Amino acid sequence: MKKNISENVSYREAVKSETAIRHAIVNEPTEKALANMRRLAEEVFEPLRKRAGGPVAVTSFFRSPALNRRIGGSPTSQHCFGQAMDVDGHVYGGISNREIFHFILNHCEFDQLIWEFGDDIEPAWVHVSLREKGNRKQALRAVKVAGKTQYWALDKA
């Protein structure tokens, strides 16, 4: 059995993918990706969970390149390097996705923070990434325009 990624993120949770299971895709991170996952979990997820006062669902974390291709992910997805996770406060109900977004925006280091779809009040989920160095602090909103996903820059003020 693999060691937990952090106090509140299990290895199993971090690599679980129904698509990988369904299509027999190996979804195992490299040691470098594991180190990135631990950094992201410790520096972003654990402070977020403390703020929420209870569980926050990790809906996507590590994706092998094969899994990422299968789901139609970006070829440059930070999920493939263990640098990105998607979280959803609605699963357990202790914190809203809007609160998650603003907590990370105002209290955590990040490379990209994405308000994923939803509406003007609440994202459907939140994507956050963290690099080892050179984090861009990009706050974005994902929207569908004519069937294509676009990312709009958000004002951080």
Automatic annotation (TrEMBL):
It comes from Fulvitalea axinellae. It comes from the Bacteria. Residues 9-112 form the Peptidase M15A C-terminal domain. Pfam families: Peptidase_M15_3 (PF08291). This is Peptidase M15.
